[in-house]
Amino acid sequence: MRVLGKRLSPSCWSVRARITAAATLMVGLVLATGVLVFYSLVQRTVYGGLHQRGALVVDDLATLVRDTDPHGLLRVEDPDFSLLQVLDQRGQVIAYSDALRGRRALKAPPPASLDRAEDHIVPAPHINADVYLVEERIRTSFGFRTLYVAAPLTELTRSKGSFIGLLAGAAVTGTALVAWIVAGAVRRALRPVRKMSGELADITGGEPGRVTVPETADEVSELAQSVNLTLHRLEGTMERQRGFVGDVSHELRSPLTGLRAQLELALQHPEDEDWPTVARAALADADRLQGIVTDLLILARLGAGVAVERERVDFGALVRTEAARRDRRVPVEIDAAEGIAVRAAPEQLARLLTNLLDNAERHTRSRIWVTAARDGPDAVLEVRDDGSGIPPEDRERIFWRFQRLAEGRRRDKGGTGLGLTISRDIARAHGGTLVAADGDGGARFVLRIPAEDD
């Protein structure tokens, strides 16, 4: 029973079923309300006309009764109001039309006041139909008289059921037609979505592929374009992941292979080896492996968008502190303005600056320059050296993973080739940029991240 109840719940219906049901219900309520209002207006119009004519007839009869106090047969002036009766103050019929000859008084509520016409719908057994009755109680010189004028509702009663049935049938037919139209329209509207769903289901772990974009310029077309854009980004991510896995396997294989070969060679003739030298060489390879793994973990966290707590940081003070933290083989000139506030993770900015300084130290000849300043809405960091510089065609390639120029490999054989990659990812994680710009002979790296207003 619980499973059946869940299946009957609207939340388990398809979009087409929910939209069709909602539209049908709304239209059904509108049509039902319209039918009731229309029937009420028709009924009020019919009864309003009868009331006006009945009031005229009863007024004429009242004038006649006041003047002559008739007894016996009354002449009918209005063919529709053919039922006339005059009752005395005891309720006895003293005058009547031919249609009510020998009949008792019509059963109607007694008038509530004098000289005021009141209308009622009462049964008339002798004609097997209801009648629309207008009554009035008057005072005459002959005593109180009660006047009845009535019109048979035979035709109205006979057609009432057909009229109500016609209106109900029209409402039901209209509701069913709307349900059919809405269901068809929703089915056609969702046809591209079903096609996209099938195309997405056919996509495997290989190439992401694309979905068909409808020719119509509507929300479904926008959805298809968004899906294709997402698939394009996913394809790029997969390609970068494949390249990353290939690069990682290659970079890890080299130190592992060297370490294994060195240890195996030493174990073949252990008595002839200088074990402290072997241990130092193995430790050097282990340090390189540790550096690669550490950098890979940092890249993985940055690439996955792992949330890092950020705080308001004095950009200039952080630059001065990190640039002067350790001694280097060349002097480092620091020019960092005060009062530059940024919202950042201090440890990540420190890692970025350290990577840039390490890179500059490897390539510079005599000096490194570090500047931090405010430029419009950005905080700007520049790290320059007086080395041989970076060729323009290599200024983007140096930010690729495991990409090291010939000079870098010559100057530092133990590097991982990930320092600049990590630095750019940190800059992007902070909504900024890191580029290798033109310099006065040497390399010049420029970092821009959004600054905060005081």
UniProtKB/TrEMBL annotation:
Please state every residue range assigned to the domain named HAMP: 187-239
Q: Where in the cell is it found?
A: Cell membrane
Under the heading Gene3D superfamilies, the entry gives: 1.10.287.130, 6.10.340.10, Histidine kinase-like ATPase, C-terminal domain
Q: Which reaction does it catalyse?
A: ATP + protein L-histidine = ADP + protein N-phospho-L-histidine
Q: Which UniProt keywords apply?
A: Kinase, Membrane, Phosphoprotein, Transferase, Transmembrane, Transmembrane helix, Two-component regulatory system
Task: Please state every residue range assigned to the domain named Histidine kinase.
Answer: 247-453
Query: Which parts of the chain span the membrane according to its record?
Result: 21-42, 163-186
The UniProt entry, under Pfam families, shows: HAMP, HATPase_c, HisKA
InterPro entries from the entry? HAMP_dom, HATPase_C_sf, HATPase_dom, His_kinase_dom, HisK_dim/P_dom, HisK_dim/P_sf, Sig_transdc_His_kin-like_C, TCS_sensor_his_kinase
What GO molecular functions are on record for this protein?
A: kinase activity
Give its E.C. classification number: 2.7.13.3
* UniProt main location, coarse: membrane
- Tell me if Phosphoprotein is a UniProt keyword of this record: yes
User: What is the name of the protein in this document?
Assistant: histidine kinase
Organism of origin: Actinomadura nitritigenes
